[in-house]
Design a protein that fits this description.
This protein has helices at 12-21, 27-37, 52-61, 134-148, 167-179, 196-205, 220-226, 235-249, 267-277, 303-312, 333-344, and strands at 5-6, 62-63, 68-74, 81-86, 92-100, 103-107, 111-113, 128-131, 152-157, 188-192, 210-214, 253-259, 282-288, 317-319. The protein is of the alpha/beta class. Bound molecules: S-adenosyl-L-homocysteine. S-adenosyl-L-homocysteine binds next to β10 and β12.
Length: 345
């Protein structure tokens, strides 16, 4: 078992404290922080302004955990690249790099597997394994940028896992992303199935992060059937938390609504959604459901009508472009396939 501290998860003041404790000047902390998060050098021996003696001490006290690219799939129809990253304990997670008019965005994972049990989602089918550390989240960004030679302009926490179920690590990741990698947190979206108490906590931090709430159904009975979290926090509680988030941060909420044929795409569903959101400053992202093997869910045929009903009622709604369709870019699909291959091997 490695007793060394994972240096990529450390805040600058924590590094300063460490250097003071070993009798070094505190400016060393800034140097190391920059080597790691700005210059992206993950080998102490290559940090040129650090003495050989100090490098040896750092190697003794710290580790720098890199990810392994197990698979890389590049779309032939758009510029989407999907990475399957291997972790130190042989687990794997996915990150997806997408090209938009405004630049590149990276969708990263926050957990290995997921506990939330949403019935349409591939990430949750094999259950939950563990939380990702802040460094494992940062490395998805650093290694995707390095491998693709593309600069990532925005990050969406929409890969495998529920970010608010790994709250402390996600918050640490966000602070280091801002202070180390220099990314404005206004360029980060955090997607949640609706863990209400954590939405209130996040709001208090006023980080500027866009909150994306996976709604998928606007009545409690229907939502509880496809999203078990709804049995714990009702739509009323969820909407109160969203209103608080807007009040505290001034950031419009983005609601995700995956349209499933015959489940949540009829006129009644649209009116319920309008009833729920009318007058609230938000955006609705309509997502064509990505059918998964385990469930017989089909893409809706009425997404255009659904969108029109919302916009006619004054609710801002767009249909999400599907990227990387030829490379299984949907949440958790690649990891699920890898588990299947390994189990059959
Ligand atoms: N746990 C978080 C983030 C991960 S999922 C959440 O629930 O928001 C990212 C988004 O993809 C969520 O809106 C999720 O509901 C949606 N999603 C999952 N599986 C999907 C599928 N098969 N088709 C379309 N959207 C899906």
């Amino acid at each position: 078992m490695d007793k060394k501290t994972d240096i990529l998860t450390m805040y600058l003041p924590e590094l300063e404290e460490y250097f003071c404790s070993i009798g070094e000047k505190s400016f060393r902390a800034k140097q190391i922080f920059e080597w790691l998060h700005t210059k992206r050098v993950f080998d102490f021996s290559k940090m040129t302004n650090i003495s050989t003696q100090l490098k040896t001490t750092l190697e003794k006290d710290f580790c720098i955990n890199k990810l392994n690219i197990l698979k890389k799939l590049e779309s032939r129809v758009d510029d989407t690249v999907k990475y399957l990253y291997g972790l130190n304990d042989c687990q794997a997670v996915e990150a997806v790099l997408m090209k938009h008019n405004h630049g590149n965005s990276l969708c990263i994972s926050t957990q290995v597997g997921c506990k939330m049990g949403c019935s349409f989602c591939a990430s949750t089918k094999a259950g939950f394994v563990r939380n990702l550390s802040p460094s494992e989240m940062l490395m998805q960004l650093y290694q995707s940028e390095d491998d693709s030679k593309r600069k990532v302009n925005s990050i969406v926490l929409m890969g495998i896992g529920e970010p608010l179920d790994n709250y402390d690590n996600v918050i640490r990741f966000l602070y280091i992303l801002r202070d180390g990698a220099g990314m404005s947190l206004r360029n980060v979206s955090l997607s949640t199935c609706g863990i209400v108490p954590k939405i209130y906590e996040l709001a208090k931090l006023k980080l500027g992060v866009t909150l994306s709430v996976s709604l998928h159904c606007a009545n409690d009975d229907g939502r509880s059937k496809i999203m078990p979290i709804n049995t714990k926090y009702s739509l009323l509680e969820l909407m109160q938390a969203c209103k608080d988030y807007f009040k505290e941060t001034g950031r419009r909420i983005s609601f995700e609504y995956s349209l499933i044929d015959g489940v949540n795409d009829d006129y009644k569903s649209a009116s319920q959604l309008i009833g729920l959101l009318k007058g609230f400053p938000c955006h609705v992202n309509l997502i064509p459901i990505n059918p998964i093997k385990e469930r017989n869910f089909k893409k809706s045929k009425s997404s255009k009508n659904f969108q029109k009903a919302l916009t006619d009622a004054g609710i801002n709604a767009t249909i999400r472009r599907t990227l990387g369709q030829d490379i299984q870019a949907a949440c958790g699909q690649l990891r699920a396939e890898e588990i299947l291959i390994n189990n059959n091997a």
